[in-house]
Specification:
Blueprint lengths: L17 H42 L1 H17 L1
Keywords: Membrane, Transmembrane, Transmembrane helix
């Protein structure tokens, strides 16, 4: 029978310096920033389109005249 004594293994841990950590994070941060900009630009385009469409429906003179004509037409019928 063989007997073994207690063995101790030492594990080496590499500690990152702040500058190394900054270098490792540059690319993921740039990717996330670019993606968030693309998302926010598309959201901004959609919201601006909806806003200006709403303004057009509210203040377009030809729409307002058509609405007034329709209101007058409906009041004559009933």
């Amino acid at each position: 029978a063989t007997t073994t004594g207690p063995t101790t293994t030492t594990t080496e841990m590499n500690v990152l310096a702040a500058k190394e950590f900054e270098e490792y994070c540059k690319q993921p941060v740039a990717i996330v920033t670019a993606l968030s900009m693309v998302v926010m630009i598309s959201v901004n385009i959609i919201v601006m389109f909806a806003f200006f469409t709403k303004l057009d429906k509210m203040f377009n003179p030809s729409r307002l005249a058509a609405k007034a004509r329709h209101k007058m037409f409906v009041s004559r019928i009933s």
